[in-house]
Each structure stands twice: as C-alpha cells, then as structure tokens.
Amino acid sequence: MARTTPHQHVHPRRTLGDGEPLYRRVAAELLGELRTGAVPPGERLPGERQLAEYFGVSRETVRQALQLLRREGLVATDRRGSHAALPGVPVEAPAAAGFPLGARQAGRDTVARATVAWEVPPPGHAEPLGLTPGRPTLVHRYWSASPGGRERRTAVTSFSAVALAEVEELARYRDRADGTGAAELRRTYDWMRRAGLSLHHRDTITRIASTPSVRVTRQVHDQHARPLELTELVMDAQQDVLVYEFMVPAAV
C-alpha cells in the first residue's frame, strides 16, 4: 500500500449504495476521488487488498473496478502498481512550503535547473541530519539565473535517513540519482505530509561577508523532532528578494 494516498488510514468496511453492479459503484467512487484531486495524477493507489477493505468488497470486485477505469484511461498500471492517470496538473503543496527553498519566487523569466544525486552531503549537513560522516544520501541541487545569465539563486538540499525511510517517493530517487538528469521534487513537502509527517521549518538568514549575498539555511523536522532535510540557499540580496508565505490550516 502506497503511503502517499488519501487511503493511508483505511476505513473499516465502507458502505456503498445499492443499484448498479458493485464493481461499477467502486469505480465511480474512485473516479470521484481522482476528479477532485484527492488522488493526484501519477499518485499510486493502494493495493487491491487495502481497497477491498476500504470499500468492504472482495478483491475480485476491486480488480473489475480498476479494469473498468483502465479501459477508460483513468488509471494506469505498471510494475509498481496502479496510479491515477487523469490529465491535469498534480495537486501542489501550499505556497508556504514550496520545495526547494526559494524556487517559487524565481519569476517567470528565470532560467532554472535542478538535479539530484546520491552522494556525500556538503560540509555541515551530516551532523544536523544525524548522518554518519562520509555516508552518502540523497542531495538535491537547484540553480536559477536571469535571462541574461546572471546567477540569482543556488540551493542545495540534503535529506536524512528518516526522510528516505518514511517517504517512498524520495526513496525511489536513489536508483536514478546520478546528478545529471532533471529532478522533479517540487512536491516533496506534500509527499512528506501524505506520509503522516508534520513539518516544522526553521529558517536562518545570515550575511555572507564581503559579498552582496545572503545565505538562508532551512532545517525541517517532523513531529517527533527527527530531522528530515537541510537546505542552504544563497542569493544576491541586491538583485533579488526572498518572500516568505505562510498558510495556517483551518481547524478541524
């Protein structure tokens, strides 16, 4: 069962209405979640057993429902399982929690590049993340420049062993993290929250001596005070402005 779907906590024997065949009713409910974005495009669905428990039906009924959705192009299945295939833009994390730090305010005319590698993190990253010195981890690098080529921002993020163990989407990057290909990790914080982690951000801003630049260091911990990631962003304070946005969720 993927930990990053709305069905992470499966409800006992969900009751479906009467009328049409049972597998069609299951397919209709799944389709409703796909259309509302509860399961974003590309997001993995829970396994057949978990879906059967959630809807209170047999696994064969779930198979028939998924087959119906596949025929209509709404669900795709590969060796990793089934996932949502509705066209559209995946649901994003709130602007306040955009990853990597500083990327959201880069501007429409900015040239940006991001890569990910499995390597020893930069100096100063291992200890805050609880990593053994010299131990490799997932490292994300971000770079942006103005259309004229003037460098505006560089950011490097190292992830902890906890983040890689808890967040399936991040762990999958290990096998393809060669530092050359493009990396699409903008939903990292969304993945973390979907994995059941509460995110606590601490951002520190310091001037870099004898330069017009500043360094923003972000440390993210979960609800158990376990480190998840550390990001260092360097930006030209004379040419650029860093904007922080915060969203407080409504009480439930």
What does this entry look like structurally?
Strand 8 and strand 9 form a beta hairpin. The chain is α+β, with helices and mostly antiparallel strands. The chain has 7 helices and 9 strands, in the order αααβββαββααβαβββ. The strands form 2 sheets. It has a 7-stranded antiparallel β-sheet with strand order 6-3-4-5-9-8-7. Strands 1-2 form a two-stranded antiparallel ribbon. The radius of gyration is 21 Å and the shape is elongated.
Describe the structure in brief:
23% of the residues lie in helices and 27% in strands. It is an alpha+beta fold and 252 residues long.
Please outline the helices and strands.
Layout: H1 22-36, H2 48-55, H3 59-71, E1 75-78, E2 81-84, E3 111-119, H4 126-129, E4 137-145, E5 151-159, H5 161-166, H6 168-171, E6 178-182, H7 188-194, E7 200-207, E8 213-221, E9 227-236
Antiparallel strand pairs: 1-2, 3-4, 3-6, 4-5, 5-9, 7-8, 8-9
Helix pairs in contact: 1-3, 2-3
